[in-house]
Amino acid sequence: MNTGHKHTGDGDDHKAAPMVEEITDYEVLEIAVRELAIEHGLFTAEDHRRFTEWAESVGPAAGSRLVAKAWTDPAFKARVLEDGTTACKEIGIDWAEPTGVGTPSDYTNFLVLEDTPTLHHVIVCTLCSCYPRPLLGMSPEWYRSTNYRRRLVRWPREVLAEFGLILPPEVEIRIEDSNQKCRFMVLPVRPEGTDDWTEEQLAAIVTRDCMIGVALPRPGRTADVHPIRKAGRPVERSPQEGSAAE
Amino acid sequence: MSVTNDVDLSRIALLEAVHHQGKEWDVIAPRYGVSNPDPPWKTSLIGMCECLAVGGSLPALDRRRAEDELGDTVYIEVPAPERELLALVHVMLNRGLVVERDLASRMRTVRLRLQAL
Lengths: 246, 117
Hints:
The complex is a heterodimer.
Chain A: E1 7-8, E2 11-12, H1 25-39, H2 45-57, H3 61-72, H4 74-82, H5 84-87, E3 109-114, E4 119-124, H6 133-136, H7 141-144, H8 146-152, H9 156-162, E5 172-177, E6 182-187, H10 199-205, H11 208-212, H12 239-245
Parallel strand pairs in A: 3-6, 4-5
Antiparallel strand pairs in A: 1-2
Helix pairs in contact in A: 3-4, 3-10
Chain B: E1 3-4, E2 7-8, H1 13-19, H2 25-31, H3 42-55, H4 60-71, H5 82-94, H6 100-115
């Protein structure tokens, strides 16, 4: 099998990812205070490992459940829009209590932004990377990029188009800037053709990107994968180059 | 001593020394061509905050209030997540959960360990 990788006796053509080649006092401080806390019995190393793993592994499933429930239960939807922080408890997310689902570092005011056919919301954190982690998990790397953070608020339609989301001019776009005090999530419009769907079916099409606002839910779309389309007029290659690249 | 809402805003020599070095992640990462927006210790910091809250030694709301107070004053020039780390340790020192002298000593030990060949 030709993987396209060139391996030689001296190594291969892969370069090691760049890394910070120095130890900062911040890194040292974090380790030192953690070790002392464990020695003083404030928590155990096992507890720390468990919570750290949670922080690295939590995903967007809770947010998907919230949207699906709001779509099928008007009373729940009203509660979500009235007080998102409290309504989250109904789907097992407590923003204030570190139960292993919620996290104290995210304790904040949580607001759900309801889309309509003429109003579309998108969330961002222009200052850093604030994100509704208890519901959506850790933020995608592009969400934290300066490219997204700086440009979305200036050219929202253009940036959304780069995600493949082209909205007609009559749809107003509203950007909500997250911060330490306030986190947001988008409640998209329920797509047509899903009238008799169960909550589970609905949750499957409510992907992370739909709740950030850079995609719209639709039947059949269950993952945030942006396919690379083949060029209509590709650069000419020799037959030999063509077969080697297959 | 300046205290607001139970948060002691007095500067702590050990933490001042840390942040005056100018080694925040958003400064040093670009020097090495690293694009990861967060330092490798960030999730460990999150885990530590969780653990302290669960154990009751530093409730989440107390810590966040202290973060807000300290972030607007003592560490106003420090970006996240370094600001969060400094604020956390600041409060732990204030509350006697760790002692500054012990922490300074442990930092020396940790640095020697990380730099060992």
